[in-house]
Design goal:
The complex is a heterodimer. By secondary structure, chain A is of the alpha/beta class. Chain A contains 7 helices and 13 strands. Chain A has a 9-stranded mixed beta sheet, sandwiched between helices. In chain A, strands 2-3 form a two-stranded antiparallel ribbon. The longest helix of chain A has 17 residues. The radius of gyration of chain A is 22 Å and the shape is globular. Chain B has 2 domains: about 170 residues, HUPs (Rossmann fold, 3-Layer(aba) Sandwich); about 120 residues, TPP-binding domain (Rossmann fold), CATH 3.40.50.1220. In chain B, about 30% of the residues lie in helices and about 30% in strands. In chain B, helix 3 crosses helix 4 and helix 5 runs parallel beside helix 8. Classes of the chains: A alpha/beta, B alpha/beta.
């Protein structure tokens, strides 16, 4: 059972996000980068499959030099191979990113492709289904439970307030939701073993793509801005709960007009 | 010919609210872009929404009524929508930002070789192109994008666009015959939601609980109020991680990003990840015993006090107000 896990490296979710002076990028100065949290569930699912059934877990990412650190971390947790496609992923739209990943994955042998349900930060939730389409694979999105059998899999997909049980043929693409598993931490042994694995690198040109195919097209960013600072409203001390409750109801009824 | 089509979801013979929101903004875009507004619906009840779609501005309803489209599944729906798009050649295709809308939009976009602006909160037709504003970093930054694709594709965040009645007559139904395709990922079963529970992404009112509840059983205070007021139950990450409540209820950066009319946060201190998920709510009410809690910095009405006495009192007062 060979898996490919597509990961993106994103600013730590605790980060204070600032816009760079060009108004089009996030200021990366001093930012700590992490593997996007949903990609961790994706990686863990692939590692567990490898442990149960054997095979390779290839972790792959498109991005600048700093991405190598994220790939290294995935190797330390149990991925067996890593591929870094070098480029400026922030200058491509989601379809561009999916095209790059698809071109790289077409050179690999795989049974399942995993990725997170969205990349934290850009919050688009597009690359997974786009990649499934480009590779002509069935997709099961936002998966909270997965069982892989012989030539087919069963997955639970989260939908509004409920879930679906989906049966799919293999190969297939899965996007991982929180709840799929508890991602492990890297062990010291894992960290040492990962140091012996070389991270393969490729450029867009190596994949037969040109910059013009990928960058600055499609959904183009015009500007970034911070939302208006929300200011605090009225604050009351609730010494009498009933009086406080009446004031809240009055607010909901008269201001929000929701009762 | 239609300039804008809105992919609609039908539930028990009616359009879902997110579809009405899509039609409402779609109508404005069609007026600016030139061309008509059309709705698209799938399954045997597709035609039943002609009147409702018309009342919200759709001139046409493309109905792909095949029984194979009774329930959503990625591959058949992608094929069916492709047929409609090939026939209509719209400038803009809008999707509701629902689980299925967000599954289908990127799939069809990749098939057509165009991008998607997902989870948008504002759409404008400017200089012959669609411009979309969307939250990023869980609402800590907003990006404005220009869509070059033909068609331009966007999914709309629930509750971001107002539902406006256009007063039109029933949409003209255009039947589209479905050319079936293999479906490799089949839905075996849909587990029904807990009876009467609203989901946080679509709710107008959310009552959310945090660590201040002290234990799982005390979520009953949150549920009672949510039930009385007709809202959904939300939760902070800490309570989900502690196993007090299911992840479906989590609001914040690794949960749902929501923007209801009213958000009531009880016993939630206001970690940056939680605030990111709810700060665009229109009216925020916070109940917390710690007067320094970060949640008070963004609350429109902050109540410093004990949630264990305030929530039951509030539930009673809401019931009284509703009874009037």
């Amino acid at each position: 059972m060979n898996s490919v896990v597509c990961i993106s490296q994103v600013p730590d979710t605790e980060s204070r996000i600032k816009i760079a002076s060009d108004g089009k990028k996030i200021d990366e100065t001093g930012l700590k980068f992490i593997v996007s949290p949903y990609d961790e569930f994706a990686l863990e699912a692939a590692i567990r499959l490898k442990e149960a059934k054997g095979g390779e877990v290839t972790v792959i990412s498109f991005g600048p030099d700093r991405v190598a650190q994220a790939l290294r971390e995935c190797l330390a947790r149990g991925a067996t191979r890593a591929l870094h496609i070098k480029g400026d992923a922030t200058a491509a739209d989601s379809l561009g990113v999916a095209r790059v990943l698809a071109a790289a994955i077409k050179t690999l042998t795989y049974d399942l492709i995993f990725t997170g349900k969205l990349g934290v930060g850009t919050d688009s939730a597009l690359v997974g289904p786009m990649l499934a389409e480009l590779l002509d694979l069935p997709q099961i999105n936002v998966v909270t439970k997965l069982e892989v059998g012989d030539g087919k899999l069963t997955a639970h997909r989260e939908i509004e307030g409920s879930e679906e049980v989906i049966e799919s043929s293999i190969p297939a693409l899965i996007t991982a939701q929180k709840g799929l598993n508890e991602p492990r931490y890297a062990s010291l042994k894992g960290i040492m073993a990962a140091k012996k694995i070389a991270i393969a690198t490729q450029t867009l040109q190596d994949l037969g793509l040109s910059d013009l195919d990928i960058y600055g097209r499609g959904v183009k960013l015009i500007s970034l801005e911070m939302p208006p600072e929300k200011s605090a409203g009225k604050k009351i001390e609730a010494s009498d709960p009933v009086a406080a409750a009446k004031e809240i109801v009055a607010y909901i009824r008269d201001v929000a007009k929701a009762i | 010919m239609p300039g804008v089509i809105v992919v609609c979801e039908v539930n028990e013979g009616k359009l879902r609210k997110t579809s009405l929101e899509g039609l409402s903004i779609g109508k404005q875009l069609a007026a600016a872009a030139g061309g008509e507004l059309a709705a698209v619906a799938f399954g045997s009840s597709a035609k039943s929404v002609a009147e409702q779609a018309g009342a919200h501005g759709a001139k046409m309803l493309y109905a792909v009524s095949s029984g194979e489209l009774e329930a959503y599944s990625t591959e058949p729906y992608t094929a069916a929508l492709r047929q409609v798009i090939d026939q209509v050649k719209p400038s803009v295709v809008l999707f509701p930002g629902s689980a299925n809308g967000r599954d289908l939009a990127p799939r069809i976009a990749a098939r057509l070789g165009v991008g998607v602006a997902s989870d948008v909160v504002k759409l404008e037709w400017t200089d012959g192109k669609l411009r979309a504003r969307r939250p990023m970093y869980s609402g800590r930054v907003f990006g404005t994008y220009e869509l070059e694709g033909q068609p331009a594709i966007a999914s709309c965040r629930p509750n971001a666009f107002a539902v406006e009645a256009a007063g039109g007559t029933a949409a003209e139904v255009v039947e589209v015959a479905f050319e079936a395709v293999p479906n490799r990922a089949k839905v075996l079963e849909t587990k029904s939601p807990e009876a009467g529970e609203l989901t946080v992404s679509e709710a107008d009112i959310i009552v959310a609980g945090g660590r201040g509840l002290k234990e799982a059983a005390n979520f009953s205070h949150i549920r009672d109020l949510a039930h009385a007021i007709g809202g959904a139950v939300g939760a902070s990450r800490a309570t989900v991680d502690a196993g007090w409540i299911d992840h479906q209820h989590q609001v914040g950066q690794t949960g749902r990003v929501v923007s209801p009319n009213v958000y009531i946060a009880a016993g939630i201190s206001g970690a940056i990840q939680h605030l990111a998920g709810m700060s665009s709510s229109k009216h925020i009410i916070a109940i917390n015993k710690d007067p320094e809690a970060a949640i008070f910095r963004i609350a429109d009405l902050g109540v410093v006090g004990d949630l264990f006495t305030i929530l039951p009192a509030l539930t009673e007062e809401v019931k009284k107000a509703k009874a009037h």
